[in-house]
UniProtKB/TrEMBL annotation:
Lineage: Bacteria, Bacillati, Bacillota, Clostridia, Eubacteriales
Catalytic activity: a uridine in RNA = a pseudouridine in RNA
Entry protein name: Pseudouridine synthase
Top-level EC class: isomerase
Record-listed E.C. numbers: 5.4.99.-
Organism: Clostridium omnivorum
Chain ranges of the Pseudouridine synthase RsuA/RluA-like domain: 88-239
Length: 299
């Protein structure tokens, strides 16, 4: 497993202090740098050095991304659909009905429990660092960082335009505009529990959408998030009068005969890889229960 990031100091960078180089040139967070320095995981030309070391031409900086760490989550054997994996990240296709991370109500059976078992079986010293999350009943692609460096890099790059999260949803009714952008602020009203509302007090929330296929009083819609608020797609579509099939929180309660969860699937991820900055594009097919729903509404 390649655990080291290697940098060679250029002539224009001579005279910089190591800490400054890692912040400005490598774009590392202060927390990542400080922790690695304390643990002796930064070397120059093979020697452990302090952050105030002054760089010389062609110095070789080695940054070890792996550190000893543990997580208070019980590993559990389960089937995990791995779509992509390397030394830095793992992307999985989450099935509907699975909670991503343990909570008071869900101590076991979560994706994190399964991933810790998966890492242990492979002999990898990784904890589960979630880069993206999905609601329990939303299926699809989730990125998990396998070390602190990749988590820092992905969190930093999430605001970039080439970091894309796209979904398929099946909604009630036919949308008036077949393509558009929903720019409406989402607010959490303490009295409404977990439910979010459209309110001027809320955070700026932007969703781009396009109708892929229309049925009798239903649409298959492709959506791309520009912001990532909790329940964003569900709130936006419901506000437009087109709640997602099976969404009992923001929609109709009479959909059990069609599908037993909200018909929302995170089908595509595009992101700059933390180590190479090359754009990684991953896609997954619509799950079976949503295909069955399309068959039912097509009749």
């Amino acid at each position: 497993m390649d655990n080291k990031l290697i940098f060679e100091v250029k002539e224009s960078e001579v005279g910089m202090k190591l800490g400054e180089y890692l912040r400005k040139v490598a774009s590392f967070s202060g927390r990542l740098i400080k922790g690695a320095a304390i643990q002796g995981r930064i070397r120059i030309n093979g020697n452990i050095v302090k952050l105030n070391y002054v760089l010389k031409n062609k110095d070789t900086i080695e940054f070890d991304v792996v550190k000893e760490e543990s997580q208070n989550i019980e590993p559990e054997k389960m089937d995990i659909d791995v779509v992509f994996e390397d030394n830095d990240i793992i992307v999985v296709n989450k099935s509907p009905g699975m909670v991503v991370h343990p909570t008071k109500s869900y101590q076991s059976g979560t994706l994190a429990n399964g991933l810790l078992y998966y890492f242990k079986e492979k002999g990898e010293n990784c904890i589960v660092r979630l880069v993206s999350r999905l609601d329990m009943d939303t299926s699809g692609l989730i990125i998990v960082a396998k070390n602190q460096f990749s988590h820092m890099a992905l969190a930093r790059d999430m605001q970039r335009k080439d970091f894309e999260k796209s979904y398929y949803a099946i909604v009630h009714g036919n949308m008036k505009d077949k393509k558009g952008t929903i720019d409406l602020p989402i607010y959490r009203d303490e009295e409404a529990g977990i439910r979010r509302i459209i309110d001027h007090r809320g955070q700026k929330s932007i969703t781009h959408y396009e109708v892929v296929k229309s049925f009798n009083n239903a649409d298959l819609v492709r959506l791309t998030l520009e912001t990532g608020r909790t329940h964003q797609i569900r709130v936006h579509l419901s506000h437009l009068g087109h709640p997602i099939y099976g969404d009992s929180l923001y929609g109709e309660n009479q959909d059990e005969d069609f599908i037993n969860r909200q018909a929302l699937h995170a089908y595509k991820l595009a992101f700059p890889h933390p180590r190479t900055s090359q754009i990684t594009i991953l896609e997954t097919d619509i799950p079976d229960d949503m295909k069955c729903l399309i068959e039912k509404i097509s009749r």
